[in-house]
Amino acid sequence: MSANLSNPVTLQIYSNLPEGFYIPMPPSQPTSPALVELNTPLLESYGVSEAWFHSEDGIGFLSGNHEYQGASPLAMAYSGHQFGHWAPVLGDGRAHMLGQLATADGRFVDIQLKGSGRTPFSRGGDGKATLGAVIREYLISEAMAGLGIPTTRTLALLTTGEQIIRDFRHVPGAIQVRTATSHLRVGSFQYAHSRLGKDGVQALADFAIEHHFPALKDRNDRYAAFLHEVGQRQASLIVKWMLSGFIHGVMNTDNMSIVGESIDFGPCAFMDEFKSGKVFSSIDAAGRYAWNQQAAVGYWNLQRLAETLLELIDEDSQNAVAIAQEQVDAYIPRFQHAFRSGLKAKLGIVDETPETDDFLDSVLPLLEAEEIDFTLFFDLLTEVASGEIGNKSEEEWLSLFTQTGAGPNWLAKWQSLRSKSSSAIAAMRKANPKLIARNHQVEQAISEAMEKDDLTLFRRLAEALRNPYAVSEQNRDLLVPPQPKERVLRTFCGT
Predict the structure, then answer these.
(1) Which of 7, 58, 208, 485 has a CA between 20 and 30 Å from the CA of residue 85?
(2) What is the value of pTM for the model shown?
(3) Is 351 assigned a catalytic role?
(4) How far is 65 from 63, CA to CA, in rounded Å?
(5) Which of 57, 92, 110, 254 is the catalytic position?
């Protein structure tokens, strides 16, 4: 080990918040931690050397060993509406915030451990994570990043040397080392509002503005502007989810980041065949967080944030409600415009006419009626537009349809409306990935890792998902949708 290696995580900005927002809490020490995967491309994007993370001190730090803590670890407090039901105290029940990593371009990113042991917020949980749950979050976050969707990332994956109990069986324990721009959630503000009052909310809002919305700092209406900006970021994020066929699965207020990043990948999934009301989560029996409900839930969550800020927005309660409602309502046109623009880009349509508007309205109902694979439809359509494989791509695209005439008729109409320009075709490819994190492949990677100690498919998927718009010949099998017997119908939280 080189003598000049040192821990690059030495800050703990959350300790600047008033007491009550967190509890100082060291992680548990695993029996025999082992570094399974270090996300070298992520470290390279931060401009941070990977060398220290391979060292004895680095692995000790990543696994929660007290001896190697450079900052003061803590568990963060928050509340939340879970499936619409109020939970006054939640918090990090199996996570420890280690501190912030300084990047080469002057930013700071949070470093948090998940699966690192019990905290006072654990309730009945054991505070641990399974290898399967950590692999799922690693792959989904890499898929998100590859698609250009703001997201938390997995910096490292470690096994703990322990066997933990899930579903009445022993499975390998693991720790996820997660990075994020922020771990503040809508639920953080709900906690401040319900437990700490106006002063607590103001302290948290000022902290969030200082660190994540500095352009608002000197504005007289900074709290209303903060609410507006959070809403705009949420709208943009959810549009990107939906246009990639992604279903988060647990859009509880405690799982919604205020900086507009995807966070907490539990029973999430990308759709194969398109169904607007599609639900994967085993705990979402009523379909609250279905694909087509995500925009409305984002708006509902934003309303819950607004309720916590009213006293800061205006001393007059009626004025405060009116101002807050205006900021919240700005979410709606932002979402509608972004979704429409994104769908046009996926189709290579540039013009805005009544005819193109009607055509756009026909696309998703067509996919649903024909039960067509969402990703394949747009990927092959992009190949048709670019002439990548000539007539073969058109034949392959038409093979997605079951009704005679439905495909050719729609294709002829699309050809008459789409732009033939190179820029429109380039925009189509940028909007239409070839590869997503398909559920059956993610589950296969988890199964092979858990049952056979084989990480080959996991590593192959992680590498391929970093560039989902260009797939090598060796990885073309990853583009294939599941056979009926391979379909994943339910996903689970993994906690």
Answers:
(1) 208
(2) 0.95
(3) no
(4) 6
(5) 254
